[in-house]
Amino acid sequence: MYFAVFLSALALSATTFALDNGLMRTPPMGWLAWERFRCDIDCTDDPKNCISEDLFIDMADRLSEDGWRELGYVYVNIDDCWSSKQRDEKGRLQADPKRFPGGIPKLSRYLHDRGLKLGIYGDMGTLTCGGYPGTPLDKIEIDAQTFADWEVDMFKFDGCYSNETVQEKGYPLMSKALNATGRPIGYSCSWPAYQGGLPPKVNYTQLGEICNLWRNYGDIQDSWGSVVSIVDWFFDNQEVLIPAAGPGRWNDPDMLIIGDFALSMDQSRSQMALWAIMAAPLFMSNDLRTISSGARSILQNKMVISINQDPLGIQGRRILKEKSNIQVFWRPLSDGASALVFFSRRSDMPYRYKTSLKKLNYTTGSYKVYDVFTDKTTTLKDSTDFVVSVNPSGVVMWHVSAPAKLNQRHFDRRGNAMESVFGGDENAIPRVFL
Ligand SMILES: *[C@@H]1O[C@H](CO)[C@@H](O)[C@H](O)[C@H]1NC(C)=O
Ligand SMILES: *[C@@H]1O[C@H](CO)[C@@H](O)[C@H](O)[C@H]1NC(C)=O
Ligand SMILES: *[C@@H]1O[C@H](CO)[C@@H](O)[C@H](O)[C@H]1NC(C)=O
Ligand SMILES: *[C@@H]1O[C@H](CO)[C@@H](O)[C@H](O)[C@H]1NC(C)=O
Fold first, then answer.
1. pTM (2 d.p.)
2. Which atom from ligand 2 is nearest to the alpha carbon of 182?
3. Separation of 206 CA from ligand 4 center, angstroms?
4. Which of 79, 154, 358, 361 could form a disulfide with 186, with the two C-beta atoms 3.0–4.6 Å apart?
5. Could you confirm whether 158 is annotated as catalytic?
6. CATH entry, 17-308, from 3.40.50.150, 3.40.50.300, 1.10.10.10, 3.20.20.70
């Protein structure tokens, strides 16, 4: 299929309704506690890493002082295990007073003073996944109001210890309850992940109307295998998932684990590049106090972030799975630009992949190509063969400008570009990008 056709079809589907709270017109960005810090509540033996006020204040300080906030990383999201095991005398959730002595309002003030936003976590069931009080149907209104009173900006609604019937009622009900508080609160639904992530069980039209983002698939873990299994699932099911996404409503393949223990630098670039292609929310789950400069520069790469945040909000797709184990991904961007990712699933050595923009179905023209991770720029005619060298489990990522029209004088009478005026480089040694 030709990309011009794709683009108009997708642009149409992107205008269908999104949750009407005006939020998250581009994928939300920030930091989320879960993958890195889990349910560590041992503040006696592990004070630096336990789920506590201090941890979130530390991360807020890092986001605001180390250049993250200016790039768009503004959410600081609490996950499970923040609350007391008991509701208060008025039936409201309350933070564990030992670990959050100032309560949630102190944290939200601290964040708002620094231009950051606060996210919090709840669960549809009788208990959260970690065994803390859940938000069953009859608690939805009071909990939504409590979060609004605390000036929370985002809410993730998990689904442990609930069932299908309860979820079907509860996820839409919470959407209504959050709206009724009058406070714009970004709404992250774990619902589809509990339904297998696919139609007919999952209704992505409905999800887009009630949630800003949703977890489609299992939790990410600190391993390359986990990243790869998520990538495969999302792109194997891209025909279902792509039309579901758009401004205000996003598929969420889960947190970035860049800066943790498992990923090499190449694998870290791969996660970042593929999350940008997927128009995924960018929630880091790492320790910003001790992150390496290598991981930081990948997460702070301005071009990848701008691709992720493209205002059209069209989720990209896998366009090729080569026998060589190179896969090619493509995402259309505003102003006729696009992003390309060449991803190696090989395990031997850097692979020299040869193709041309024409073979990737780009229309006739001359393109400015910017290599996102090396900062190199070049100009490529659609028909020019080139070679990218892709490291094992690594990527090469390009931002490709809109095509510049080939100069009039260079067309023949029927409007076909005359190859010879470009130096007849079809058989020349292909360009190499390293
Ligand atoms: C290019 O378009 C053709 C014709 O629609 C299609 O068969 C082919 O798979 C496309 N190639 C890529 C890389 O998308
Ligand atoms: C609530 O929903 C209405 C109607 O969809 C919308 O106009 C309004 O902005 C929403 N308010 C909040 C706080 O989300
Ligand atoms: C689902 O959970 C609700 C509330 O716990 C319970 O009343 C209902 O019987 C359950 N339904 C099924 C089908 O298990
Ligand atoms: C999915 O949800 C939409 C919007 O809520 C609704 O109009 C449609 O009927 C639903 N589709 C199915 C198959 O239930």
1. 0.93
2. 13
3. 6
4. 154
5. yes
6. 3.20.20.70
